TrEMBL record:
Subcellular location: Cell membrane
Pfam name, any one: BPD_transp_1
Location of the region described as Disordered in the Swiss-Prot/TrEMBL record: 1-27
Annotated ABC transmembrane type-1 domain residues: 96-323
Bilayer disposition of the protein: Multi-pass membrane protein
Protein name according to UniProt: Phosphate transport system permease protein
Membrane-traversing stretches: 37-60, 89-121, 133-157, 189-208, 304-327
Pro residues compositional bias, start-end: 9-18
Length: 338
């Protein structure tokens, strides 16, 4: 071979770009009319949702500022709620305490139970048992709130006295379960918390069950092939994969607990007393307070109730925002996109 000719040969020409590309950059194919319609519809829906949220926030803020500006008490620390008095005095201390505490206790009870039910349906129960049980959980999720409230007032409250006395006897030293008036009707934050836990168990269970079903079967089979027990498969393969989904399910349940109205209003005896004695009839929640006073309130009283609704709205946004941050931080460990 002639080395001179090889050295003088022109360099190879660059590869020809594919059809429809200029400068080596491939163009995206033109969207079909149906794709354009769907893209516009989905984008418009997202924008509409933001507009609705902004409108709600603006309305609540406008009405709340009108009430807070005339409040003669401290809106955040006053225990009394008498917006229609002269001068008006109302505060959210008792309502914020009741809403947050009852929801936290409900979550502490409901989340472990819900995960246990979801794992039993997806990984332990026989198909003949799992299908009816899953159907029953779906039915419980569809029961209206007022039905839960009537059941709680007529059945749960009378049967809570024994549990309250037992907690007072053996755990009264904690102060939290010290019942100052034993034998009174169990219309307390603790009873409301149990009722809320029963209400949110179906929601958390349904979402968690679907998330557990999305775990790749190969992950579980690989763990079993290495000699893992069924619990080790769940702990090492199922729960890490489903962590973000479980957090989302829990936040859905927490949102239901924070905003529940009729069930709480039916069971709880609202008062302006703020106490850590969870077994005493005292306290209240934002939603229950709005439902109890909105019908007979004056224009200013309704503005005051809307101010409480604004606080509940902000609490819900904070909770959901915190959940999204937790899911984003756990995303790389979960195996799925949040």
């Amino acid at each position: 071979m002639d080395m001179t000719q090889t050295a003088d040969a022109p360099p190879p020409s660059p590869p020809t770009p594919p059809n429809g590309a200029e400068g080596g950059v491939e163009k995206r194919p033109a969207l079909r009319p149906g794709d354009r319609i769907f893209l516009g519809f989905s984008g418009g829906s997202g924008i509409l949702l933001l507009v609705v949220m902004a409108a709600i926030a603006g309305f609540l803020t406008y009405r709340a500022v009108n009430a807070i500006s005339q409040d003669h008490g401290n809106f955040f620390t006053t225990f009394e709620w008498n917006a229609d008095s002269t001068p008006p005095v109302f505060g959210i201390a008792v309502l914020a305490f009741g809403t947050v505490v009852s929801s936290i206790i409900a979550m502490a009870i409901a989340v472990p139970v819900s995960l246990g039910i979801a794992l039993f349906i997806t990984h332990y129960a026989h198909r003949r048992v799992a299908a009816p049980l899953a159907y029953l959980v779906d039915l419980l999720a569809a029961v209206p709130s007022i039905v839960y409230g009537l059941w709680g007032a007529l059945f749960l409250v009378p049967h809570m006295n024994g549990l309250d006395l037992w907690l007072d006897k053996y755990f009264g030293w904690t102060y939290v379960f010290d019942q100052s008036s034993p034998g009174s009707a169990a219309r307390s934050l603790f009873t409301v918390s149990i009722l809320l836990a029963i209400m949110i168990v179906p929601i958390i269970t349904n979402v968690s069950r679907e998330v557990f079903r999305q775990v790749p079967r190969m992950h579980e089979e690989a763990a079993l092939a290495l000699g893992a027990t069924r619990w080790e498969v769940i702990r090492l393969s199922v729960l890490p994969f489903a962590r973000s989904g479980v957090i989302s399910a829990s936040m859905l349940g927490l949102g239901r607990a924070l905003g529940e109205t009729m069930a709480v209003a039916t069971v709880l005896s609202s008062s302006s007393v703020l106490s850590l004695h969870l077994l005493d009839p005292q306290g209240g929640t934002f939603a229950q307070n709005i439902a109890a006073h909105f019908g007979e309130a004056t224009d200013f009283g309704r503005d005051a109730l809307i101010a409480g609704g604004l606080v509940l709205f902000v609490i819900t946004l904070i909770v959901n925002g915190a959940a999204r941050l937790i899911i984003a931080r756990r995303k790389e460990y979960s195996g799925v996109d949040a």
